[in-house]
Amino acid sequence: MMTTRRLAVAALALIALLALPARAQPNLYFNANIYTMDPAQPRVDTMLVEDGLILAIGSNRGVQDSMRQQGIRVVRKIDMGGKTILPGLIDAHGHMISLGAIGLGVLDLRAAASYEDMVNIVRDRASHVPAGTWIIGRGWDNESWADKRLPHHGALSKAIPDNPVWLSRVDGHAGLANEKAMQLAGVSSAMTSPAGGEIVRDQNRLPTGLFVDNAESVISAVIPEGLTGTAEECILQAQKMCLAAGLTGVHDAGLSPDEVDTYLRLEASGALKIRVYGMVHAKEAPAYFAEHPPYDGFKLTVVSAKAYMDGAMGSRGAWLMAPYADRPTGPEGQPYTGLQVSQPAEIEALVRDGLAHNYTVCTHAIGDRANREVLNAYARAINDWQPVTPADATPRRYQWFTSADARLRVEHAQLLSFDDVPRFAAMGVIASMQPTHCTSDMRWVDARVGEERARGAYAWASLLKSGAHLAFGSDFPVESENPFLGIYAAVTRENLDGEPAGGFHPEQRVTREEALRAYTIEAAYAAFWDERVGSLEANKLADFIVIDRDVMTCDAREIADTKVLETYSYGELVYRAE
Ligand SMILES: [Zn+2]
Known about the structure:
The chain is α/β, with parallel strands linked by helices. The protein contains 19 helices and 25 strands. Zinc ion binds next to loops.
């Protein structure tokens, strides 16, 4: 006969059982084709997830065993029907606010087929807004036009006389202003170019409307803030676009302290679903380092600064060791080797300051000279650096005991001298590179730098062979945020039409496995996230995606057409295809 006491216990057990559905039930994903990025078991079929955490992963039988050991009996079974699961992809270099701004209405000029075409797009917008309203656009690329010459503001100013207009080139390293915008900025023929920038002039020494690198701020300084939605609106818009593309993490390459605060608010409110590694603009970094300890939150990590050594190759702003093959001399007849936008000593000082505050540094370097100078500056900064020894250190997550712990990075590393390739691995410097830059730029890279130097362009395979950490991204919105376009570009070095057949300098292609690693565990490593995400393993966070094909075995061309079916961040379904 059941005692009262036993009844009470049974009732409690029943209540507990009834209460179970309120608690998250573990999800058992089975019959899946899972690429884990874990070398111990690269490909498995079953994964158990609870409260955002992977409890077990492996063969169905292995996971059942693990469930028994963990005393888990009730699970929600989800038959994946053989579908492919990958760790959530991570873009190691993007610009969320610019991407969101395009989503929210900044004119997207990437499809403009000519200068006239671009002027028509702007004229159409001008006819829908009051006179005096700024019109901002971005993404034009004269290299994709029949007439590849850089545009002159004349046609733009004639077509749009009443609205100030600012149109950024695709690489973000040059922009075209119309007459009205130049008036507002007080541009005159007497104005001199700032250091590290160029106010481009015609043969009469009059500004052509083109402002390169540091000179862009002449115009951008007079553009009112919040023209294209608030930072928060832009981030949320970009987040939507990234989650739909299969990205569960992004490295946002350049934030103001205000923008970091926006991210912090979004994280605190639970609206930030994507993981973000935010880099603070170098010019604001010293004050930021002094006032804020490194931050590592639930979704947001802020432990680095973003500096620039040079411009971009498309606008001939990349800093080269020898003159450009297609513009050997500058306006005064001097040898022209591109633009140096900061002093190596400034990069060195920033690294010293960063290391002293447990921050690290990511530096944009495109030309071979810029890359060498950044590596030299890094080497000088870490040579005589004295780490805080573990004994006197207050334990905290970001504590650099060796210089390699700081995971210093070079962003882009596009053109390298082969002498510099092994220095990345030797110094523990991460190469953060963008495969689609290669397939967009290959049309003109040989012309810019000559075929011999171009062998060291986008040298992914050489870097991997040397033992360097290689992280991949897109530099969105310069390129599409779709990471499968990047994986396709990395393994083929062909454009979407399959050209050039066999690939541009094909010896630098990487395998699918290597490309996927660069978009997952290596991008996680570059953000100090490798212990929590980047591979699917027990006790890691459940950031994963379900896709419509097996990207490891399908025809290479079909990688680019991959559709994301579902995206999970910390176990939560954050995107599902319609
Ligand atoms: Zn960038």
